[in-house]
Design brief:
Two copies of one chain form a homodimer.
Chain A (H helix, E strand, L loop, with lengths): L6 E5 L25 H13 L4 E4 L11 H4 L4 H9 L6 E7 L5 H14 L4 E6 L18 H19 L27 E2 L4 E2 L14 E4 L4 H10 L2 E4 L4 H17 L8 E6 L2 E2 L3 H12 L4 H7 L30 H14 L3 H10 L6 E2 L1 H13 L5 E4 L4 H17 L12 H5 L7 H9 L1 H4 L2
Helix pairs in contact in A: 3-4, 4-5, 5-6, 6-7, 12-13
InterPro entries (chains A, B): Diverse_substr_monoxygenases, Luciferase-like_dom, Luciferase-like_sf, NTA_MOA
Pfam families (chains A, B): Bac_luciferase
Family (chains A, B): Belongs to the NtaA/SnaA/DszA monooxygenase family.
């Protein structure tokens, strides 16, 4: 068995870490980076040059004036990734698509098309849309409730995976001598009839290089974790502390095992904000300076998002934190509950909650290259993560990681030295699911198909 | 007013002209061209080098064993065009997306994303899906009937166009000095509530280089023509004869004028199969040879498509043509009716219909370079077309057109010598629709906004 190695992802223009609310102000990042395909291509190529496994594109379909800057106007993930695909050759391309407002046939086709275009580097970050307002852009009076959102998501992924198995290898002989283009015996209609979807199939796109593009998932709610354990192959999460990360990864692996899956087929990649300088002290000063730039007013407005964009500006800042969890029932419920619990447990006022959240945006991955490398290695060896998703976009800051931290991790054998495969699945070391019909054929005629 | 010039489109792997049923057998075309992004990029670059206005990608979401070869397995249009976009710089990129099985918000966003990625070269071929079986891939018991299909299509396009006006120019100052990223006064929610769709908006993507990507349309039914006259800017059609083409273009222009539109904003581009050789005689022989390659059996099966994939193999070939128009009510009704009328008017048997259709697949654009150039010029000057959509994929055949026919047309001033714009809209000479809110602002404060 090959040695387990740390996986590397780069989140392009995600928002979440300290100082990221005003990424657009960074002198090295063009103000219109989120609509500039050439900026994305350059970042993906830099990540590929450093041997990263994947780039990841976040997404949403609902905005308000208070949305994070780059969310107000940004390229659609699949069109963007397709453009990146033809200017890169090894790095994985992971796009976010919601199961709540896309048809499974269209999702299956677009991701499979990307898998063909990229030579086997497509990944799907499955989301259910947390902004309740999204419903208004899709002819619905209100967003789906949690059980429906996640019930649809699970069935949606199952349908997409079923459509991806529409063709076995060899379904298209395309033999110009004999004139045989197609072998109908290797084409299979899905004929799915479920609770939320009825999809006949087959897909109109043959088996792709990966066969099954890689499934990514990030939900943190009970329903979200259950979905991740059921169908996720890579779980995006956050990493506030070693203990929390370890507990999360352990729980996910146990849930997957309880569902009969091999936990090795489930990788956990927290998004981490690395802050690197020559010395630990300089790095801490750098983080302090960055945290100090966020305005209280903006933080107060952004606090509304998990609560269904609840308007917190209308409350007395020095009164106890208001209970507005009801507004979060069709939004980011788990996040809203965690914030409310934090306020209750500590008796925080609204002002204190905002200040605490700003301060607690501190990253555990701050320090000299040796310190950051050591922390990552420690978390990896302790079983707190299988890889990291770097949320740094400024080229010089990203280069501090690739040029100064990665060499240390490679020296120690934590990170592989070169790409080991041409596919994302191959580089992540994930098993290649056999086509279900080929598997059935093999079971029925073991001799005929023995390797 | 600049001289009217002939527009040029290249249909990549469309099916329709003589001999195209077995394009895949052509020695110059890879058998798997329809899933090979590099093949498409090479063809688009060849068309761009020849100064073509656009490449066009056809699409469908339902297949049967008898579907045209390249339809069985092909890349999804928008992911494909995005990949082509970043390997070309001037040619327009027109993709087919159905209004029947896509949400307007998603369509608006994907096309706008392509317009940003390509620097203003996106076009949308609006279709309603003619294959009734498509419904089964989208959780519907049956396809929409004609009035609903086209009612939805019109409203869908209106919503998409409304979403494209979500932002005026200047909505994103992104001034790093002042810290102003966004000007909410230049963002507008659509708040559409219609018969088929309710879409609040705004879109999460700023005004694109074209402002409004170009709308293409091809329906030939009464409802289809009405949609084209209402919202189409370029109409794809076929061209069996000069008279028919002229009557079609005249009718479309009259319909558009009756709707209060300037007919100059509506271009008609028939798809044409050019067959070129040194002499007219050699060209005719070349076409004969190509027509002769189609098997009767395959033609009989493909005849089923407009009739909702009706199975014609079960009839006596020498009995009168059966009346199966009922099966076409939710499919390609107009095409099915035309075939039935042909059979009735001529008293044709089923066998005669198939033979007649195969023989009538002859192109009017067959001959020496001088003959073909002359025919195109004549049709253009007679008002039968505003441009042609070349349906030839073999590089050597395409080169006969670009290297031998186009120079003649350029010499005569029928085709422009160089790209005149960086956008598709600019190259097609179509007016640039002003943002509706900017227009309203201008009307309200004429002095402030005067140029």
């Amino acid at each position: 068995m090959p040695r387990r190695t740390l996986k590397l992802g780069a989140v392009l223009l995600g928002v979440g870490g300290p100082g990221q609310h005003n990424t657009w102000l960074h002198p090295e990042i063009p103000g219109d980076a989120s609509v500039d395909v050439h900026w994305y291509i350059a970042r993906a190529r830099a990540a590929e040059a450093a041997g990263f496994d994947l780039v990841f594109i976040v997404d949403s379909q609902f905005i308000t004036e208070n949305s994070p800057h780059h969310y107000l106007s940004r390229l659609e993930p699949l069109t963007l990734l397709s453009a990146i695909a033809v200017h890169t050759s090894r790095i994985g391309l992971v796009g976010t698509l919601t199961t709540s407002y896309n048809e499974p046939f269209n999702v299956a086709r677009r991701l499979y098309s990307l898998d063909h275009i990229s030579g086997g580097r497509a990944g799907w970050n499955v989301v259910t849309s947390g902004d309740a307002g999204t419903a208004g852009n899709y002819s619905r009076d209100e967003h789906y409730d949690y059980p429906t959102r996640y019930g649809r998501a699970l069935e949606h992924v199952q349908v997409v995976r079923g459509l991806w198995d529409s063709y076995e290898d060899g379904a298209f002989p395309r033999d110009k001598e004999t004139g045989v283009f197609f072998d109908p015996d290797r084409q299979h209609a899905l004929n799915h009839k479920g609770e939320y979807f009825s999809v006949a199939g087959p897909l109109n796109l043959e088996r792709s290089p990966q066969g099954q593009p890689v499934i990514f998932q990030a939900g943190d709610s009970e329903e979200g974790r259950d979905l991740g354990a059921a169908v996720g192959e890579v779980i995006f999460t956050h990493a506030a502390s070693l203990e929390q990360a370890k507990a999360f990864r352990t729980e996910l692996r146990e849930r997957a095992a309880a569902k009969g899956r091999d936990p090795e087929g489930l990788l956990t990649l927290p998004g981490i904000q690395v802050v690197i300088a020559d010395t630990d002290e300089e790095a801490r000063a750098k983080e302090d300076a960055r945290l100090g730039t966020k305005s209280f007013d903006r933080a107060l407005r952004e606090l509304g998002r998990p609560f269904g964009w609840h308007d917190f500006t209308r409350y007395d800042l020095d009164a106890p934190f208001p209970d507005v969890r009801a507004d979060a029932q069709r939004s980011f419920r788990t996040q809203a509950e965690a914030i409310t619990k934090l306020a209750r447990d500590n008796g925080f006022t609204l002002r204190q909650v905002v200040e605490h959240l700003n301060a607690s945006a501190r990253s555990p991955f701050v320090g000299s290259p040796e310190t950051v490398a050591g922390t990552i290695e420690h978390w990896f060896e302790e079983g707190a993560l299988d890889g990291v998703n770097i949320t740094v976009n400024a080229p010089s800051e990203f280069a501090l990681f690739t040029d100064r931290v990665l060499p240390i991790l490679r020296e120690r054998g934590v990170v592989r030295r070169e790409y080991e495969s041409t596919t994302l699945r191959g580089n992540l070391g994930l098993p290649v699911p056999e086509n279900r019909y080929t598997a059935a054929r093999r079971a029925a005629e073991p001799a005929a198909l023995a390797p």
